[in-house]
Automatic annotation (TrEMBL):
Protein name: Beta-galactosidase
Region feature (Disordered): 1-24
Beta galactosidase small chain/ domain ranges (all copies): 687-949
Gene Ontology BP terms: lactose catabolic process
Domain of life per record: Bacteria
Entry keyword Hydrolase: yes
Reactions accelerated catalytically: Hydrolysis of terminal non-reducing beta-D-galactose residues in beta-D-galactosides
Length: 954
């Protein structure tokens, strides 16, 4: 290796030796050999690797002393730390920016695998060695012969190897460098994970096999005609038995078909026969077009209810097995998600087969991001430097050629966050020429010069509305402005799902439904990339000692790392329901919000009893009367029969109709009892107080381990804190500056009278004159203790409050909770669409939401009453007027705020109850807009009441 650079891994060109890209063809009947398994491995600290191990006689070389590694896999996730560690950065490169040079410390993994050909491997024909994905640069030898070098981690590379193969003892050697020129093009917000992380296969290529296959299957919606043309090299015959198609390649065939859509993913089995090879294909007929400023499929506007999906598994990183891919898609479909942006690289090719089969719209994004150049003013950005253009084109070609035959892929994306540049324009030009059937997407250049849709990330609702009205601020160039104003609008990223949240989803959805130009978006993102870790449960940036990292910004998904849905996903499912069920009078208005499907696949019921709903075409609605019921009635739309993605009975959408008779005459008015004082204790009905301080000590037999006190603090959420690059302006920044995490309670008076006890306090942080005057008024009947809290802001308040309520402690034994109100999951003012009114029960432990970085969580909304019980079934009942937010946990807010990982949360001997009159909204400020004004908790006079009763045990 030369020390002055200029090595192959620092070469900006696309590499050497690989065959031209082609479509992925899992349906071929040609022989194939999966080379995955346990390989020999040796890690070197620099790019020299293991010296001449791969160039010397491969048969003489003894690798017995080498380690073992699983292929596919990332070496940093194997070897228990012996093979280095994962590292996380969002935007910043974890090495000095001096393209295309990379650090001398360039971890290099030498992989060696000896394999035999199966006995039935054909003697005739060619063979190719195929790599689906290697990060970031590989140099390959087979039986001592060098095949070539490649970069482009999430893209396939093939080499012709027929002449080199022998029946037994083939020696495959792959040297993988963690860093290469390609690393500059792969600055996606994710873990840096080197290795051969996708399959390596040997594919037989018989005489006369198809070099490539290209399927074009359009749909003419006006006539219901499918238009099919299959090309291959060499040509052959294509048959689609179900459609009676028998045609030659290159021939265009027109037949009536059922179209493919994400809602109705109709695929037809086909076979291409080239003489040398038979290739099974699954064909979906559909046409994507932009007409009148609207993106349409098969002539109809579509709405993306999408997510950004990184490939991730908490144990294996970006090595994602087939079951996990399917699991992702089933979870998405079950949560009403209809679209995926493959952020920010082409996914494993099998994922797109599953999208075709299950029905998802896909924006397929190229493996390209140079975001770290923004940190240095975009100087030397590779996408604006002609020397890099061949590598960019190579990446575009490898994506388009591999994925071109998928019905699910409706748009190509040039990449993510690369700024602007001639290289992007060149990519766009090549893709347009090669595949005019799909629009182009790229967000990073707001002039949209190279693309067909106007795409943005994280705009505020107000801006989306202006764009929806085609009234956005103009571009300087009038021609570009007119062009962009005529484009459909999508948000390739919005609603940053980091920690608790995102808030404000519903308000976005209403904009998508109001303005035809606003065609939805893709929540950032699908999954938290927390790595399974013995120390932390799930690890995030910094947990591996990285010198530059971005902490838990890598945990911002709708599902936790183990793919348990987070409350954010449950909320998203409700907000994007394809059927709206809304109360209207004594009935429900049912609206079909599908883009293509009717309601035929759904069965409706009211609390389990079948409900007749007329067939509604997309966009239509009907008023369906309900017979009167006692409490709230719940109408559900369920799958009438098993679907490919969920069983019959699965709830797709729901709505509730509150009974107008509810709550009337609930409380019979028992006479109030006066207080009695003895031995420094004051007794008021079931309440026992400290007479001097007015602190509540017990309710009936239930000891109150920490007396009720006004509480305005919450453990800041990621959205409260906002992104690291703008802390002071965020809600949590303001709260901390004011000192809301350290308020003092000054006792101003304890007054006892005939009707009860009044305690007055002033609650305020040190050093400021803003405070809250609080009066706690206690009264009681023989069996019930009542509290009314009045709060009056005092002085100048510069910011919102995190919460407003009281907190108190009860013994740890009170571990079971039942409540009537919103549930079963957590909800906050702007994340409450999925809260269903009803009777719910959970343990205190189950009430916790396990955000990877602990933070405020677990509030239940609109709680009319909650009961806590111990094993003896004795307990405490707390009613609220008005209904309140109920939270119970085994640690304090201070402990929750101090925790950095879940194992830091250690249950104490108290269950802490938070009875909140109000909460500040959640918003999406961790990367995007904050809380909408209507969900801010502004300090203003407030009054709220609770009543407490002890519940007898068994
Ligand atoms: C945006 C990126 O495109 C995405 O990869 C991810 O980093 C996301 O933000 C935040 O999690 S870029 C952002 C700086 C607007």
């Amino acid at each position: 290796m030369s020390v002055s650079g200029g090595t192959y891994y620092e070469d900006v060109s696309p590499g050497t030796g690989a065959l031209p890209p082609r479509a992925w063809s899992p349906g071929s009947d040609a022989a194939r050999l999966d080379l995955g398994g346990i390989w020999r491995f040796r890690l070197s600290p620099d790019a020299a690797g293991t010296g001449d191990a791969f160039t010397a006689d491969p048969d003489a070389f003894d690798d017995a002393g080498w380690n073992r590694i699983r292929v596919p896999g990332h070496w940093v996730l194997q070897g228990h730390g012996e093979y280095g560690s994962p590292a996380y950065t969002n935007v910043r490169y974890p090495f000095p920016v001096d393209p295309p040079r990379v650090p001398t410390e360039n971890p290099t993994g030498d992989h060696r695998h000896v394999f035999d050909l199966p006995d039935n491997w054909p003697d005739e024909g060619e063979a190719v060695l195929r790599f689906e994905g290697v990060e970031s640069c590989a140099r390959v030898w087979l039986n001592g012969q060098e095949l070539g070098v490649f970069q482009g981690s999430r893209l396939p590379h093939e080499f012709a190897v027929g002449a080199l193969l022998r029946p037994r003892g083939n020696v495959l050697a792959v040297r993988v460098h963690q860093w290469s020129a390609g690393s500059y093009l792969e600055d996606q917000d994710m873990w840096w994970l080197p290795g051969i992380f996708r399959e390596v296969t040997l594919l037989h290529r018989p005489e006369g096999a198809a070099r490539d296959v290209s399927v074009r299957a359009g749909y003419e919606h006006a006539t219901g005609t499918g238009v099919l043309r299959v090309d291959s090299e060499p040509g052959g015959r294509i048959s689609v038995p179900e459609l009676g198609i028998e045609a030659a390649t290159g021939e265009t065939v027109r037949v009536p078909v059922e179209p493919w859509t994400a809602e109705t993913p109709r695929l037809y089995d086909a076979v291409l026969d080239t003489g040398g090879e038979r290739v099974a294909l699954r064909i979906g007929f559909r046409t994507v077009a932009i007409e009148d400023g609207v993106l349409k499929v098969n002539g109809r506007r579509i709405l993306f209810r999408g997510v950004n999906r990184h490939e991730f598994h908490p144990e294996t990183g970006r090595t994602v097995d087939a079951d996990t891919m399917r699991r992702d898609l089933l979870l998405m479909k079950q949560h009403n998600i209809n679209a995926v942006r493959t952020s920010h690289y082409p996914p494993h090719p099998a994922f797109l087969d599953l999208c075709d089969e299950l029905g998802l719209w896909v924006i397929d994004e190229c493996d390209l991001e140079t975001h770290g150049f923004e940190e240095i003013g975009w100087r030397r950005n590779p996408v604006d430097d002609d020397r890099w253009t061949p590598a960019l084109l190579d990446r575009a070609q490898r994506m388009v050629e591999r994925d071109k035959n998928h019905a699910s892929v409706v748009m190509w994306s040039l990449g993510n966050e690369c700024g602007k540049g001639r290289g992007l324009t060149a990519m766009a030009a090549w893709i347009r020429e090669r595949d005019p059937s799909r629009p182009l997407h790229y967000e990073g250049d707001w002039s949209c010069a190279d693309v067909d849709v106007y795409s943005r990330m994280y705009p505020e609702h107000a801006e989306v509305e202006a764009i929806g009205q085609r009234k956005e601020a103009p571009l300087e160039d009038p021609a570009l402005d007119a062009r962009r104003r005529a484009m459909p609008f999508i948000m390739c990223e919005y609603a940053h799902a980091m920690g608790n949240g995102p808030g404000g989803l519903l308000e976005y959805q209403r904009l998508f439904e109001t303005y035809e130009r606003c065609q939805g978006g893709f929540v950032w993102e699908w999954i938290d990339h927390g790595l399974a870790d013995e120390r932390y449960g799930f690890a995030y940036g910094g947990d591996f000692g990285e010198e530059v990292h971005d902490g838990n910004f890598v945990c911002d998904g709708l599902v936790f790392p183990d793919r348990t849905p987070s409350p954010g996903l449950v909320e998203f499912k409700k907000v994007i329901e394809p059927v709206r069920i809304a109360p209207e009078g004594e009935g429900v208005r049912i609206t079909n919000l599908h883009d293509f499907a009717g309601l035929g696949q759904l069965a409706f019921d009211v609390d389990g009893e079948a409900l007749k709903v007329p067939e509604l075409a997309p966009g239509e609605s009907a008023l369906v009367p309900l017979t009167a019921g006692a409490e709230v009635r719940t109408v559900r739309a369920r799958l009438a029969a098993d679907a490919a993605w969920a069983a019959a009975g699965h709830v797709v959408a729901w709505g509730q109709v509150p009974s107008s008779a509810q709550d009337a005459g609930r409380r019979e008015d028992a006479p109030l009892v006066p207080p009695a004082t003895a031995d420094g204790r004051l007794t008021l009905g079931p309440g026992v107080f400290d007479a001097a301080s007015g602190a509540l000590l017990a309710v009936g037999g239930v000891p109150v381990t920490a007396p009720p006190r006004l509480d305005v603090w919450r453990a800041p959420t990621d959205n409260d804190e906002g992104p690291v690059w703008m802390p002071a302006t965020t809600a949590a920044g303001q709260w901390l500056q004011l000192g809301l995490d350290r308020v003092q309670h000054r006792l101003d008076g304890v007054e006892t009278g005939e009707s009860g006890l009044t305690v007055r306090t002033r609650v305020a942080p040190a050093a400021v004159d803003a405070g809250l005057l609080v009066a706690y008024r206690w009264t009681a009947t023989a069996g019930e203790l009542r509290l009314t809290v009045s709060v009056e802001p005092d002085g100048e308040w510069p910011c919102s409050l995190p919460r407003l309520g009281i907190r108190l402690g009860v013994p740890a034994a009170f571990g079971d909770v039942r409540w009537y109100g919103g549930g079963p999951g957590e909800a906050y003012p702007d994340t409450r669409a999925a809260a269903m009114t009803g009777r719910w029960s959970k343990t205190v432990d189950e009430l916790q939401t396990p955000y990877v970085r602990p933070q405020e969580n677990g509030a239940r909304i609109d709680v009319h009453w909650a009961e806590l019980r111990d094993a003896d079934r004795g307990g405490l009942r707390i009613e609220g007027s008005p209904p309140y937010y109920f939270t119970a946990r085994r640690w304090t807010t201070e402990q929750l705020a101090a925790a950095t990982h879940l194992p830091d949360l250690i249950p104490g001997d108290t269950v802490w109850l938070h009875l909140d009159h109000a909460q500040h909204g959640i918003g999406s400020r961790s990367c995007g807009p904050g809380v909408l004004p209507q969900y801010e908790l502004t300090p203003e006079p407030a009054e709220f009441s609770f009543s407490f009763r002890s519940l007898p045990g068994s």
